[in-house]
Each structure stands twice: as structure tokens, then as C-alpha cells.
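Page 37, continued from 36.
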């Protein structure tokens, strides 16, 4: 039986929507295996740091990097060709429920297994202390990586979803937090996200002095979530050199078609943003605030001013880890039922961002969730609701835009309106039917 409050929204009209395509600068899309081979061959530090027979720990995190399984396999193959004996260390702080088995499962969900990688995966939550910061904070590193003959850092370089700093997501953060496992991540987050940018650098400097870091392999992606570039950085100067690539990654980010084109983040008002899925493979926050303008911390700002955000579901790969969905205003009961407190609470207690473990209003189905958002978005022109629907906050090539937005989008460079506005379609259970041309 449907709850009585549904009656308050069931007659709310929804705007007609049209499919829209955004075109971004691709920045090149190289073959992953060739790109790895060429980048490693061109970096003198690679051949100079590998000795035949040495054990090498390769870091792989919990993010859904573009071409992740192919990249991991290619790096492993190149290390083997140099005579090394590589193994993968899951390097994801507290993700995977902060258990060794859970972190292996996260890699499997991302397509990385011993079979696909061509090497062992050795997972443990045990860490060793390799130093302390001036404030007394313990600096910890995965024991298996520390005991290896060498460590190769591998991660995507990109803007973070919870703080702004000279170094954000990338090799430095992988070294300081990812390889710190749950205990190291908790230490780094202990003072809040306003200090994380400083702590990841200080911790990374300690680990670069005390651990056998051979080099780092960083990927940069374009706005289509595809590989754009691979860089190999030596330990010396790694922190400073990564900053240049972070600026490039920021320029490459996709965005909603709102605000000035010469700015990396969208800006301006929007009545409703409809997000089909949140997921850890899209953003560490599940729903990237660089896109939505809804951060969970005060250490990041910018983005559009959205009155109401609706989220319909969490991805299968996230295994119920809908961390960050709190920044929505309305969700579906389907998402509510899949919300896994074990993984979400572990993330939030480790990061210290408790608001990220909250749940918004849950409506019975897609239709009533969208109607609730439209009803309460405080639009001054209810007959001209501005609404954008996206599959997630990573894939923004295609989106649906409400009829009221189409005139301004039609004159915007890089925008193609692919059809006439039509009513939103739902099945008998109130589930949204309109699909995406690119499969997202």
C-alpha cells in the first residue's frame, strides 16, 4: 500500500525533456597498453630502479579509472619484462569495509583480479609506522608494500571531491592515504578535510624518505572518462610535478552546460538535477560535488546552485556503498533499501565526514521522487522548470534537459539538441524508462 504522503505529489506535472549531447575536447585517447609501454620506456627512472628478481608492490585503488584492468595488466607486463616480480596491493584506505577480503572484492568489481592482472594480489590491513609528523601524527604504510623490494605507485590524477589543495587525488594521495590502509587514512582525516591537503603532502614526504618508492605512474583522463595521457614521475620532485598535471586534469573535467565556458566548473541556478546513479566508480563521494555544487565539507566550493537533487539508485559495483548520497534532497526507496550501512559508516567514520552517511527523503519510486523535487524546488516559474537529468556525475556527454532550458542550450557552443522535448516516460511501477544512447 502506498503511503498517504504520495498524494501530495502525485498530481505534480513534470516538464518535457529533450536528449542533448555535449562535445568536449578529447585530448587524445591512446591505446592503454601502448601508452604504458611508451611512457615507461621514455622514463629513465624506470630501467634504473628495477633489478631482476626484485619484488615490486603495485598500488591499485578503489576508483573506476578509465581502462583500469588493461592498464594494470600492461604495467604488470612491463615490470615482468624488466625482470621484476610484481604483486598488487589494494590501496584504498578504509574502502571495502576496511577488511582485506573486502578490498580484494572491490578490485574484482572493478575488473582487476589475479587472472586479469597476471600477478598475485596480496591484501592485508596490517600497517607499520614509518615516522611521525611534527604534530605527533603516526605515518603508516601497508606492511606488505613496505617489505617489498620496491613500490610502484599507480593512480589517476584528478581534482578531489572534498578538498582543494596543491595536490589532490593522485600519486601523493595514493601514497599517503591509499597505502596507509584504514589506520593511515583515519590519521590523515583526523583534523578534518581543511587540513587533508597539507597532511597528504607531509605524509608523502615521510614515506618517500623511508619507503622504497621506485616511481609513480599517473593517468589523466579527458571529459569523456577515457584515457588521455600517462605520466611517469620519479620520487624526487614527484609532489611538485604532480601539481602541474592536476591543473591539466581540472581543465579536462566534464561539466553541466551552465555558466561561462571558460571556467572549469559550471555555475548559475538550476531548479532540479536528476542523477540516475551514484557510485564509487564515478567519484570518491559517489556524486562528484565538482559537478553538482553540493560538497560534504567546507574545504571545497564552487559549482552550480541546484535547488533540488534527486538520486534514483546506487550502482551494483558499489555494493551498497552510497556514501555521499546525503547531498541529495530526494532518493527512491530502491536506493534506500540498497544502502549498506556497514560500508558507508566505515567510510564516514574514517573520513570524519558524518553527514556523508545521512539519508535524504525516500519516495516510493522514480516518478514520485522527481515529483517531490519539482514540487519543492521553489521555482518562481513553475510552468518553466529548469531540470537536467544525467546518468551519473562522470559521464556527461549525453543528458536530458527540460524544455525551458533548450533556448539557451541551442545557442551554446558544443551543444547539440538531439530531439524534440517529450514527456518523461514511466512504467507501471513508476520507474523511469528513457534510456541513454551510450549505455550509461
Amino acid at each position: 500500500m502506498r503511503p498517504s504522503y504520495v498524494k501530495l505529489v502525485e498530481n505534480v506535472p513534470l516538464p518535457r525533456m529533450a536528449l542533448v549531447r555535449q562535445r568536449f575536447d578529447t585530448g587524445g585517447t591512446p591505446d592503454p597498453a601502448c601508452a604504458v609501454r611508451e611512457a615507461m620506456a621514455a622514463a629513465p627512472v624506470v630501467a634504473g630502479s628495477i633489478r631482476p628478481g626484485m619484488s615490486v608492490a603495485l598500488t591499485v585503488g578503489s576508483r573506476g579509472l578509465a581502462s583500469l584492468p588493461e592498464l594494470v595488466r600492461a604495467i604488470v607486463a612491463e615490470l615482468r619484462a624488466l625482470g621484476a616480480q610484481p604483486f598488487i596491493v589494494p590501496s584504498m584506505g578504509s574502502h571495502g569495509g576496511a577488511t582485506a577480503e573486502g578490498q580484494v572484492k572491490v578490485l574484482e568489481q572493478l575488473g582487476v583480479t589475479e587472472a586479469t592482472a597476471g600477478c598475485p594480489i596480496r591484501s592485508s590491513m596490517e600497517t607499520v609506522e614509518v615516522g611521525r609528523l611534527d604534530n605527533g601524527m603516526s605515518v603508516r604504510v601497508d606492511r606488505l608494500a613496505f617489505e617489498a623490494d620496491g613500490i610502484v605507485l599507480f593512480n589517476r590524477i584528478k581534482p578531489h571531491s572534498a578538498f582543494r589543495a596543491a595536490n589532490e587525488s593522485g600519486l601523493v594521495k595514493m601514497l599517503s592515504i591509499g597505502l596507509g590502509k584504514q589506520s593511515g587514512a583515519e590519521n590523515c582525516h583526523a583534523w578534518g578535510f581543511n587540513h587533508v591537503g597539507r597532511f597528504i603532502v607531509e605524509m608523502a614526504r615521510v614515506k618517500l624518505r623511508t619507503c622504497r618508492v621506485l616511481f609513480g605512474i599517473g593517468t589523466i583522463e579527458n571529459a569523456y572518462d577515457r584515457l588521455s595521457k600517462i605520466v611517469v614521475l620519479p620520487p624526487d620532485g614527484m609532489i611538485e610535478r604532480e601539481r602541474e598535471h592536476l591543473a591539466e586534469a581540472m581543465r579536462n573535467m566534464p561539466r553541466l552546460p551552465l555558466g561561462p565556458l571558460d571556467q572549469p566548473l559550471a555555475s548559475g541556478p538550476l531548479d532540479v538535477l536528476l542523477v540516475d546513479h551514484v557510485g564509487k566508480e564515478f567519484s570518491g563521494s559517489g556524486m562528484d560535488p565538482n559537478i553538482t555544487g553540493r560538497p560534504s565539507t567546507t574545504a571545497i566550493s564552487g559549482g552550480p546552485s541546484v535547488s533540488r537533487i534527486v538520486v534514483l539508485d546506487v550502482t551494483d559495483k558499489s555494493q551498497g556503498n552510497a556514501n555521499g548520497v546525503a547531498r541529495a534532497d530526494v532518493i527512491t526507496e530502491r536506493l534506500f533499501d540498497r544502502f549498506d550501512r556497514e560500508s558507508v559508516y566505515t567510510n564516514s567514520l574514517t573520513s570524519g565526514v558524518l553527514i556523508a552517511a545521512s539519508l535524504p527523503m525516500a519516495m516510493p519510486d522514480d516518478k514520485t521522487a522527481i515529483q517531490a523535487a519539482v514540487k519543492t524546488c521553489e521555482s518562481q516559474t513553475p510552468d518553466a522548470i529548469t531540470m537536467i537529468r544525467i546518468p551519473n556525475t562522470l559521464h556527461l556527454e549525453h543528458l536530458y534537459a527540460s524544455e525551458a532550458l533548450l533556448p539557451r542550450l541551442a545557442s551554446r557552443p558544443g551543444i547539440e539538441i538531439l530531439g524534440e522535448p517529450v514527456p518523461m516516460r514511466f512504467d507501471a511501477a513508476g520507474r523511469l524508462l528513457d534510456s541513454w544512447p551510450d549505455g550509461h
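The chain is about 30% helix and 20% strand. Flag for discussion at group meeting. The chain has a mean pLDDT of 91.
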